[in-house]
Amino acid sequence: MKTNAPTPSPTHPHIFSFAQHDNHFLLDGQPFQIRSGELHPARIPAEYWLHRIQMTRAMGMNTIALYVMWNYHETSPGVFDFQSENRDIETFIRLCQSEAMWVLLRPGPYVCAEWDLGGIPSYMLRYPDITLRTGSATDPRYMSAVARYIDELIPRVKPLMACNGGPILMIQIENEFGSYGCNPDYLEDIRQLWLRGGIDGPFYTEDGIAQLQQNRSNVTGGAIALSNGNAAQIAAARQAFPGVPVMAGEVYLGWLTHWGDATLQGTAADISGTLDAFMQHNLSFNLYVIHGGTSFGFYAGANVDPDSGAYQPDITSYDYAAPITEQGVATPKYLQYREIIARYLPTPLPDVPEPIAMLERIGNDALMPERYTSVWDNLPAALPAAQTVDPQPFEAYGQAFGFALYRKKLRDYRGGALNLVDVHDYATVFVGEQYAGGVSRAPMPDRCAQPLDVVHDAPLALPFDLSSHEGAVNLDILVEGMGRVNYGHAMIDRKGILGPVSLQDAMGESEVLKEWEVFLLPMSPGYIANLRDVCSNPRKAGLFFRATVSLDTVGDTYLDMSHWTKGMVWVNGRNLGRYWNLGPQRRLYCPAPWLREGENVVTIFDLHQIEAKPVELARTLS
């Protein structure tokens, strides 16, 4: 049976609305099935936006859902960027329109998305008593920032609404708030911000059906989208909320992966039966995610295990076992789902676009980096002493991402046990020039190939016998901030050292260490570009390595970091993201637009290695 849903092109004003009695969506007064696939512009190079949109359309979708990551566009209060790199969401939405695709806009302010702090800017955490995801009556500082963000979006979004000739059908209010709390006033506050700006909807909310029913987290006049929804849940929600249109808002085609997981998650998922039921009964849905892309740089988020309370940082890749791979290739499941959808459509689907070309072989497909410099030879000026009597988190110093070095001069040093229980999230510790061990907030699996002396939730024994010191020695704690928690009630997740650091001597006496030097190391593009080519101690970990490669032509590739330990990779100054030998991710995706014909520079910062290892080039994530 072919669906009777119309598929007009969004090239002139249209009226998208809700049926009054039968829970359907209407486009220009006719029943309309939303067949949506989720894409995140922030995770896709702008040069590939059109290709991924075309891939989505060729799988049978007529709509694209997209998150807007607030913290990707407002990195400091009042300073917005909607133009650089892949931040021009207006262009992305116009590209959707050029391909006759409608849009579901999901601007948050909170989005979850396995993205740092769920998209909320980390500068909010500079307030010690901040409350997130709450209305003006509870915390006006948060809601004032939300208002500034939405006010910035409104003039960009308003011309793109379907009623104004654009492709946007609906705007989502917040995200999965029923999993967080019960505060209808907060959701209404957000809706009112859009209304105040002259956008009167349509709006919708997203939640699991149990959370929706428990916390009634829908909004006045808005539609309902169900997380992990299926045909039966849509029927149940229609019964519980008569007269309200319902769709499956996040149908999971795979799943997220944490560092330390045994394998990449979600590969066993198969939604064929669910998808067939949607098509048979003309039900609206959004596939999360049809293509995941990559959490480049420092933007990958984290979770807290609900049972153990353990911190679980997300890997860099957001491949998600989606039907379109991280590199944009159609998987067998893509073809399987496309065939199911095509059976119900009155016209043939467009051809599947050709995949993006991969990089041709270069010699033996391996780079051999060389030691370049060290973080110790590239320290910025220390912060003023008044700010560093006690170590503070990154956010207190105005830093969002990266690393920070906390240094304390120890007088009459005699070894001992270092209590560093409030490190977020990973630290390497040095006494003088000697590596003393590491501290990881995330548990360390037994199978891990991590170097010795990395502890979790335990004191770190410091060495007593040093090669040379005269009664005083520097204690250096180099802290990496990994992803901020993006889901649940542990989202106040500051980075750096969050509490007192104490040193216990052999007699069991403990001293809280005061008067630190703090060096901020956000590892920005400017910092990487201006590294000094000097390495005063090549045996002290915290080294940068470099390789150059000359290319006659460019293409996508993966850098295989299997021989390395833990760190970051930049290609021509662009941050590919984090690698860690915990796995299961071993390779980092490098898109062709970040390469160039001629000389290319690969920069590696590794927290542990003092010897360079090869970096092989690969064609797939695994």
Which regions are unreliable across 5 or more consecutive residues at pLDDT < 50?
none
- Write down the Rg: 26 Å
CATH top-level class of the largest domain: Alpha Beta
Widest sheet: strand ordering = 4-5-8-9-10-11-12-13
Instruction: Bin the helical content.
Output: 10-25%
- The CATH topology of the largest domain is TIM Barrel
Structural class: alpha+beta
The average pLDDT score comes to 94
Write the SSE topology.
Blueprint: E1 16-18, E2 25-27, E3 30-31, E4 35-38, H1 49-58, E5 63-67, H2 70-73, E6 74-76, E7 79-80, H3 89-98, E8 102-106, H4 140-157, E9 168-172, H5 184-196, E10 203-207, H6 209-215, E11 223-227, H7 231-240, E12 246-252, H8 272-280, E13 285-288, E14 302-304, E15 311-313, H9 332-342, E16 366-367, E17 370-374, E18 402-411, E19 416-419, E20 423-424, E21 426-431, E22 434-440, E23 454-455, E24 460-462, E25 472-481, E26 496-497, E27 502-504, E28 510-512, E29 517-521, H10 525-529, E30 543-551, E31 557-560, E32 566-571, E33 574-580, E34 587-590, E35 598-606, E36 615-618
Parallel strand pairs: 4-5, 4-13, 5-8, 8-9, 9-10, 10-11, 11-12, 12-13, 22-23
Antiparallel strand pairs: 1-2, 2-3, 6-7, 14-15, 16-36, 17-30, 18-25, 18-29, 19-24, 19-27, 20-26, 21-22, 21-25, 27-28, 30-35, 31-34, 31-36, 32-33, 32-35
Helix pairs in contact: 8-9
